[in-house]
């Protein structure tokens, strides 16, 4: 059963090694273990304090008004969401959830909502980390969540053109399983893969770990159907077009404000003949940066580059357990010039056997110029095996008394190090205001010829209460968002904007850009049926 | 000096070999050599029939109202444009041309036009083949052409991020020369490279011959400034962003309807260590199709794929002259299994020496599976040397009595052959209605994993008069456009929509899509200052 107040399936329990807990305690001080609220108590609270407004004249046979369904569709996976759920202090949940099973039912519900002055919030796998699913503050209309996860069929597969059409609510593992049966893959593997939906990836412009080969959502989203409150936008899956504005781009990043995405055609690939992940150490952050920049700018055909800074590298090694093996590895790396301050780079190699061999030779030739030391596939296999398990550590950390948040941006080369420093310092300073410490570390998860993403993780102690915990989190998040846009970065490289990042959108888009987005919202949704407060 | 009624510099004279003329005469019948109108006569006609309305209260110091300047900025390179110019029957030219030298002057002219009820048509290198530059039929306002080609400076180069910012009017060769001085290239080489402008490439979503490596305009356009009638849209050159709609995409394909693009930041690359073009024959069209599809779907890192069908292959060999060498080559190919019906594929290999060697081995390994026979770099070098010269042949063909038109689309795999047949037949049937023949042939200029472009050439005889020639051309073009959209193709893969293709845009975009584009036009340009009739 999926956890209602944490990540993933409740049969999977991540464990922190004693040395990992010792390490964090040294960094952050002794934590207090929290006491989680029970699902029953929270549901009772919803029943009592927020009775559904869907009843009587506003009843609809497709809408489920049970508290647990409402609760599960109103929260994502942001730290703010967790704080509310774990402490049992839920703010606003939707009045009901519909699980449409056809495009016609989505249309019916949209029309019904428009006719009855109901706000609609579309929802996929409920993995948002930027507050997409909460009803907007101050909203007085009843709120209907449209949970699309029963729309999960592969409805068309054009093997020759490698185009697959799915209903938009299909979740990552289900999508890959349906494709794998035919020998194909989409290759989109964000960390939230296990629960995130295809439609969610499109409307938030998601990027997977191997986007270097398979592309960001922009690259593999070929077309589909968006049901707007008044119309139906159908986008054919052309390989390319120079015929005016590309309407795919009006769906990508629309975050449920222009319409509900019901059908998605994606560009797929045959399952690769071979795949390898190789761990490479470099002597310093600057050497690592220079190496990944060179790999990207020479268009070396890798499927992934992921460069951890020195603190993340150290943290990874510490949290891995296996202190004996790590000590041996560090001795070897020291001999090879990678001592204190060393950084860990993972590269992915995917394709035919010849491509993998060629790309590996090209890549290792380049990283060696920067002092890189390959450790072969040993660490890479470990990373790949745990690529979707790492996120379960958040559960274990919470239970040990620690909060974890991650923040991500992207910036042209030249600004990377300043951005990393600004973000990590902002987090530390924000918590210092509470007399708290913060363990901050960073990796570049996506590398482009003109720049990279910057993905930072912050571990800090829970407060004694929901309010205290929330205050710490919000201070940290606010400080980091301000630092990101001040440094010229985007407010989101891969998570979307939601409500939490909406105040910062204007720095990137400018007044004219915001006005254009508002005009599009006004065009597609003049009555505000989808005015969830996400994006704008 | 640039030709006013044909392609390119008038010091460059393309010649057709006698056997080429014989070949065409066999295909099409004996042509009649036309008598071109003189520039002086056409300018006198403009002076007499279309006096400029910019004078008196409507005078502006930046506006040139001399007939030749007005003429040169009102026509592009479509066959319809040529017919008007060569026969000296010009329809509507603009009332004046301004050559702004700064962003401030563009703003001043836009504001002046808005205040004085003047229509503005932006213009770059005047290479449009879809009628962008003509004043719209029925327009009663005075028309100002904004020729941006004096805005040509490289204003910023971030070597580390490989981002170059240019003023938008810079032409291809000037842009490449400015970059090459710093060791970089944009790598965007459409056939119109010699005269096309950077801004034009962006607003029409241009695609160059080596887009497989360097990307389409969508891929290398990183950001810039669009002056709309009421505002200024500034787009920062982020490497990637998941923050809502991507405003770059509101500039790409806007064809001057949302604003005037004044500054463009592009993603550039270091000049490659090595570049090769290799000519490969395959035994049949089906074998060629299967080979390029496999190369694309395996992501073999080529910089170009260009597959000619059998008639284009034959025509290329016939027009090349060198009958003796060709006969020898054909004997050799016959022994290797490529006889009648053989097709010619050019692949481009660009990058480091290692990348070129690896990609060549991978590519040749794949094409061999489909019966491909490499002829090494011999034909490839010839192709590369003449890549921008071929378009000069249009001049020589016209002077010999033949018109040439090209039409292009893109479609998912599975539809390619039906599309080629439909287009070529539509052209032949349209001309049969006039008792004329048509020599039609096709190549795939751009290949993607999910499909390809289809680029067809039509050679047919001039009529005795402008009207007769126009009637033939328009019948051909109309029949082909209808065939393209009926087959599910886009109305433009690389040339934009302009006025000529605007009637067909709705098939691709749908009613909801057109309404959204119209809403955006209404938002950016409520007064219709830029209502040129292009796109919509």
TrEMBL record, chains A, B:
EC number: 2.5.1.26
Entry annotated with the keyword Transferase: yes
Domain FAD-binding PCMH-type: 90-271
Binding site for substrate: 394
Assigned keywords, A-Z: FAD, Flavoprotein, Transferase
Highest taxon of source: Bacteria
InterPro entries: Alkyl-DHAP_Synthase, FAD-bd_oxidored_4_C, FAD-bd_PCMH, FAD-bd_PCMH-like_sf, FAD-bd_PCMH_sub2, FAD-linked_Oxase-like_C, Oxid_FAD_bind_N
One of the record's GO molecular function terms: alkylglycerone-phosphate synthase activity
Name assigned to this protein: Alkyldihydroxyacetonephosphate synthase
Site (Important for enzyme activity): 306
Catalytic residues, chain numbering: 455
Family to which the UniProt record says this protein belongs: Belongs to the FAD-binding oxidoreductase/transferase type 4 family.
GO BP annotations, alphabetical order: lipid biosynthetic process
One of the Pfam families matching this protein, by short name: FAD_binding_4
Cofactor annotation: FAD
Gene3D superfamilies cross-referenced by the UniProt entry: 3.30.300.330, 3.30.465.10, 3.30.70.3450
Binding site for FAD: 122-128, 204-207
């Amino acid at each position: 059963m999926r956890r209602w107040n944490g990540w993933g399936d409740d049969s999977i329990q991540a464990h922190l090694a004693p040395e990992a807990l010792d390490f964090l305690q040294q960094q952050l001080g002794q934590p207090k273990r929290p006491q989680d609220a029970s699902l029953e108590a929270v549901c009772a609270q919803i029943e009592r304090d927020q009775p559904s407004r869907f009843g009587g004249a506003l009843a609809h046979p497709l809408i489920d008004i049970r508290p647990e369904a409402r609760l599960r569709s109103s929260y994502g996976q942001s730290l703010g969401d967790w704080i509310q759920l774990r402490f049992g202090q839920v703010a606003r949940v939707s009045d009901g959830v519909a699980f449409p099973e056809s495009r016609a039912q989505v249309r019916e519900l949209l029309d019904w909502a428009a006719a009855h002055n109901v706000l609609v919030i579309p929802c996929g796998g409920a993995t948002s980390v930027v507050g997409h699913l909460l009803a907007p503050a101050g909203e007085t209309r009843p709120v209907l969540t449209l949970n699309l996860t029963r729309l999960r069929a592969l409805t068309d597969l054009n093997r020759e053109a490698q185009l697959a059409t799915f209903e938009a609510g299909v979740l990552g593992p289900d999508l890959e399983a349906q494709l794998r049966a035919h020998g194909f893959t989409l290759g989109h593997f964000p960390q939230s893969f296990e629960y995130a939906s295809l439609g969610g990836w499109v409307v938030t412009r998601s990027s997977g770990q191997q986007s270097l080969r398979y592309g960001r959502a922009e690259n593999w989203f070929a077309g589909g159907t968006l049901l707007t409150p008044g119309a139906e936008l159908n986008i054919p899956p052309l390989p390319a077009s120079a015929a005016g504005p590309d309407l795919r781009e009006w769906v990508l990043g629309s975050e449920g404000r222009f319409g509900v995405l019901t059908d998605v055609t994606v560009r797929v690939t045959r399952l690769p003949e071979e795949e390898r992940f190789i761990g490479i150490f470099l002597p310093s952050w600057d050497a690592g940066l220079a190496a990944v920049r060179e790999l990207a700018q020479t268009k070396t055909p890798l499927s992934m580059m992921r460069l951890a800074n020195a603190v993340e590298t150290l943290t990874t090694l510490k949290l891995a357990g296996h202190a004996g093996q790590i000590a041996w590895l560090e001795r070897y790396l020291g001999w090879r010039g990678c001592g204190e301050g060393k950084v860990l780079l993972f590269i992915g190699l995917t394709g035919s056997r010849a491509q993998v061999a060629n790309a590996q030779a090209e890549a290792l030739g380049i990283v060696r110029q920067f002092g890189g030391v390959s450790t072969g596939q040993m660490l890479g296999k470990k990373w790949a095996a745990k690529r979707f398990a790492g996120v379960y550590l958040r559960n274990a950390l919470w239970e040990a008394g620690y909060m974890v948040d991650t923040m991500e941006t992207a910036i042209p080369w030249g600004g990377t190090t300043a951005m990393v420093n600004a973000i990590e310092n902002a987090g530390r300073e924000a918590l210092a205001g509470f007399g708290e410490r913060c363990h901050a570390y960073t990796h570049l998860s996506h590398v482009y010829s003109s720049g990279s993403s910057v993905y930072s993780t912050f571990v800090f102690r829970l407060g004694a209460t929901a309010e205290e915990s929330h205050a710490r989190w919000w201070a940290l998040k606010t400080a980091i968002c301000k630092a990101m846009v001040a440094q010229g970065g985007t407010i989101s490289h891969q998570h979307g904007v939601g409500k939490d990042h909406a105040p910062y959108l204007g720095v990137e888009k400018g007044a004219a850009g915001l006005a254009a987005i508002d005009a599009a919202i006004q065009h597609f949704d003049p009555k505000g049926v989808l005015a969830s407060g996400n994006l704008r």
